[in-house]
């Protein structure tokens, strides 16, 4: 199993991957190094993918007993994690759902059952883009305590790039992106974020204010139809707007 890869290292390592099986296995190893050894990757709708590349649980490393119980009880109809992920939500931690949403007692009980089955520290990463796809990755841990958790932005960047590589392998990258182009300065800001530079470091190198960097990112989000930096980086890489 690899150690914790930086986003740049993950991008570089995926350049040689040619099959879905290899990609799935590698991605599971990468996120497991961050403590998330339970993975569920699903694509409900995406006009650029064939029927063979769509489905619920395309990767599913959840406990077998829980998976069977989930299907048998039809939990997808009430699963608050799934319902939130297929909406327009940004990346989220499962624990925040009960605080932010008015769940039924049945849904709350469902969340407790998931924990009892060995799904802790859950994270939901919706995958968005210009084709109005409905897709996402759910990550969880088999142990309750995994030490310091990584930021949602890092997990989102890894998941979004995973989806970019999934596109390449499935032969869907011929779908040309006709959205607004990024300016040279927007590309510079995005590339530096992709390789792990802070806003402060980027501001010094480019000779601009940190508030200006934030303004650039707001415009980038609007142009690419995303809500966070990880997704912006993945979209820009997918459509060749930047290169690392």
TrEMBL record:
Key words of the record: DNA-binding, Transcription, Transcription regulation
Example of a GO MF term: DNA binding
Gene3D superfamilies: Transcription factor LuxR-like, autoinducer-binding domain, Winged helix-like DNA-binding domain superfamily/Winged helix DNA-binding domain
InterPro entries on file: Sig_transdc_resp-reg_C-effctor (IPR016032), TF_LuxR_autoind-bd_dom (IPR005143), TF_LuxR_autoind-bd_dom_sf (IPR036693), Tscrpt_reg_LuxR_C (IPR000792), WH-like_DNA-bd_sf (IPR036388)
Keyword Transmembrane helix appears in the UniProt entry: no
HTH luxR-type domain span: 175-240
Full protein name: HTH luxR-type domain-containing protein
Species of origin: Asticcacaulis benevestitus DSM 16100 = ATCC BAA-896
């Amino acid at each position: 199993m690899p150690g914790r890869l930086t986003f740049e290292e993950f991008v570089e390592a995926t350049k040689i991957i040619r099959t879905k099986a290899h990609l799935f296995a590698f991605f599971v190893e990468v996120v497991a190094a961050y403590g998330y050894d339970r993975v569920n990757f699903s694509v409900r709708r995406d006009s650029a993918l064939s029927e063979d590349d769509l489905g619920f649980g395309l990767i599913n490393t959840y406990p077998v007993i829980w998976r069977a119980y989930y299907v048998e009880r039809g939990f997808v109809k009430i699963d608050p994690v799934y319902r939130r992920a297929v909406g327009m939500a940004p990346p989220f931690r499962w624990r925040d759902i009960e605080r932010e949403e008015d769940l039924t007692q049945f849904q709350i009980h469902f969340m407790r059952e998931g924990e009892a089955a060995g799904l802790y520290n859950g994270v939901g990463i919706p995958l968005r883009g210009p084709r109005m796809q409905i897709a996402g990755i759910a990550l969880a841990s088999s142990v309750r305590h995994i030490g310091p958790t990584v930021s949602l932005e890092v997990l989102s960047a890894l998941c979004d790039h995973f989806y970019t590589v999934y596109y390449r392998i499935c032969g869907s990258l011929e779908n040309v992106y006709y959205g607004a182009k990024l300016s040279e300065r927007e590309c510079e800001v995005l590339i530096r974020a992709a390789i792990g530079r802070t806003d402060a470091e980027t501001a010094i190198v480019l000779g601009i204010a940190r508030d200006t960097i934030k303004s650039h990112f707001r415009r980038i989000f609007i142009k690419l139809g995303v809500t966070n930096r990880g997704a912006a980086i993945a979209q820009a890489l997918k459509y060749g707007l930047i290169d690392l």
